[in-house]
Amino acid sequence: MRKVTCSMSVSLDGYIVGPDGRFDWSVPDEEVFRLATEEVRGLHAHLLGRRLYETMVYWEDADRMPELDDREREFAAIWNALPKVVFSTTLTEVRGNSRLATGGLAAEIERLRAEPGEGDLALGGAALAAEAAALDLIDEYRIRVYPVLVGGGTPFFPREERRVNLELIEHRTFDSGVAYLRHRVVR
Known about the structure:
By secondary structure, the chain is α/β, with parallel strands linked by helices. The protein is 27% helix and 29% strand. It has 5 helices and 10 strands. The protein has an 8-stranded mixed sheet with strand order 5-4-3-6-1-7-10-9, with helices on both faces. A hairpin with a 5-residue loop joins β9 (166-173) and β10 (179-185). α1 runs parallel beside α3 (70-81). The longest helix is centred in the first third of the chain and has 12 residues, at 30-41. The protein is globular. It starts with a strand and ends with a strand.
C-alpha cells in the first residue's frame, strides 16, 4: 500500500513560516534541492493546500524562464508531470497536472492508494498536514530542519496533536547545516 508522507522544511524552533509570513530562510541549497527532487521523483501524487499550491504554481512556467539552471529545469519537469490534488474552498480552477479535490482528505487518499502504479502520496501545507495527522493518515514525516530560529509563526506540528510514536529510519546532515530527519509512524 502506498505510504502517505509529509515532507516540509521547518525552523529549529518548529515553524514552517515565520511570524512575518516569510519562509525565505528555507531556500534549499544544491544538496537539499537534490533531496527534494528525489523525493518528488518517487511520488505517485501530491496533495496540497491552497497556499502551497499557489507557491508551487511558479514551476508551471519553468519552460519560459531562461534563468533556471539544469537542476531547476529537471525539478520542474518532474513536478509538472506529477498529478496533484489541491484542497481549497476558494479556488475554482487550477493549472497544469492539478485538479481540485472532489472529496474529503481521507476519501482522496483512499482513492489514490487504490490507483495502479508505484510511488508514495505526499501532502503539504500546514492546515492539510494537520488534518491528515488528526485523521492518522500520515505514515512518514520527512523533515528538513533549518538552522534558524524564527520565534513564531505557523508551527509544523499542530499544538492539539495527540501523541504519536515515531521510528527514525533515515537522517542526514548537509554542509549548509540543514538536518534531514525521516521518521515512520509506529502503529
